[in-house]
From TrEMBL:
SUPFAM superfamilies: S-adenosyl-L-methionine-dependent methyltransferases
Entry GO MF terms: tRNA (guanine(46)-N7)-methyltransferase activity
GO cellular component terms given for this protein: tRNA methyltransferase complex
Keywords for this protein: Methyltransferase, S-adenosyl-L-methionine, Transferase, tRNA processing
Superkingdom of source: Eukaryota
Protein name: tRNA (guanine(46)-N(7))-methyltransferase
Record-listed E.C. numbers: 2.1.1.33
Signal peptide feature range: none
Length: 360
């Protein structure tokens, strides 16, 4: 049934239930241990292949004391964690909700209900289904990362050394597109696969684990026109671009870390030195695409490029690009949304976009 196809992780604190599980030969091969910081050791039970009878009423009552995270069938197939509340009302007190409901029935009902809910990780998988990325490392859950990094720390103060362009790209003379703060890299992987042989794609990311995984995907997809670098773009962009033998035709800065606090604004990726470096290295006719789901951040990026006479907004060159009365692009001109863009729109947020052309 559903229990055979669903993965449940029950974080257990009860010594009694741990002992009960270890005495069950049908469950023993299917459990493992999790260690969480600042918490006692918790045992997690893997029930992906356990029969429904393995969850008696007593087990469900003990579970009323613990936190529960639920993985539905879609999570098992696509490695997407469905974020459920840690504590359900059914676990609020001993016996509450379990007087006439066995543990197996509860979780079967719960997994079915959650599986019917479309979550944003699933939308990301649908958007990038064409890539067919290896399922063994598809989700960030396999690569634990920090959401926000301080680019001003000493660890990121040294400019990255340019790679051997003849090694990372099959043809280093092709026009180059650069994504500053590329995140997982799916956005450029999709573009690189679509435009193989005519454009090179370089992603710059300050979180090293994401870079390592993105380059692994490059190899898995046999792409010869994509590469990702661990670099602080604010201080490395000029050094990298001055060494590239081909023309720089496109730079994107998409949904960068907002760093909301005023004292942290200096941590934002788009600082005056980076803006000047982008404009100086961009070939005439080249484009800069910026977007954010945070109006304050988008307005800051807009103001920086609007102040440069050589940078013209796309609607001044091509009226077919529709803008709202405030000058924000109505649609994404790239043909594919970024992961953050998908998450934000799924949550009902608006995306603020601007695209600039360098004067010829």
């Amino acid at each position: 049934g559903v229990l055979r196809k669903s993965l449940f992780l029950l974080y257990l604190r009860s010594a009694k239930i741990r002992k009960w599980i270890t005495q069950k030969p049908e469950l023993k091969p299917h459990f493992f241990h999790l260690q969480r910081s600042q918490e006692s050791a918790k045992m997690a039970v893997l029930l992906s292949h356990s029969p429904a009878c393995a969850l008696p009423r007593a087990f469900a009552r003990v579970a009323s004391h613990v936190h529960c995270s639920l993985f539905s069938l879609s999570s098992v197939c696509h490695q997407h964690r469905l974020h459920c509340p840690h504590r359900s009302k059914n676990f609020s007190s001993i016996g509450n909700g379990f007087r006439n409901l066995s543990g197996a029935n509860y979780f079967e009902e719960r997994s079915t209900r959650v599986a019917e809910t479309i979550r944003s990780p699933g939308l990301v998988a649908m958007e990038y289904a064409e890539l067919n990325l290896p399922h063994i490392c598809e989700e960030v859950g396999h690569v634990r990362i920090r959401q926000h990094v301080n680019p001003l720390s000493s660890a990121f103060s040294v400019p990255a050394e340019p790679p051997d362009w003849n090694v990372v790209f099959k043809d280093p003379l092709l026009p180059l597109m650069v994504d500053v703060g590329c995140g997982s890299g799916r956005f450029f992987l999709w573009l690189a696969k679509r435009n193989s042989g005519c454009t090179n794609y370089l992603g710059l990311e300050i979180r090293k684990k994401l870079v390592m995984r993105a380059n692994f995907w490059v190899k898995e997809l046999d792409l010869v026109n994509a590469h990702f670098m661990f670099a602080n773009a604010t201080i490395s962009f000029e050094h990298l671009m001055s060494s590239y033998p081909g023309p720089l035709v496109f730079v994107s800065i998409l949904c960068p870390d907002p760093h909301f606090k005023k004292r942290h604004h200096k941590r934002r990726v788009l600082q005056k030195p980076l803006v000047d470096s982008i404009v100086n290295n961009l070939t005439p006719g080249g484009q800069v695409f910026v977007q954010s789901d945070v109006l304050e951040v988008a307005a800051d990026m807009r103001n920086q490029f609007d102040s440069i006479p050589d940078m013209l907004h796309i609607d001044a060159i091509n009226p077919n690009f529709g803008c709202d009365p405030d000058g924000w692009l109505l649609n994404n001109p790239m043909g594919i949304r970024t992961e953050r863009e998908i998450h934000a729109e799924h949550e009902g947020s608006r995306i603020y976009r601007r695209m600039y052309n360098k004067r010829t």
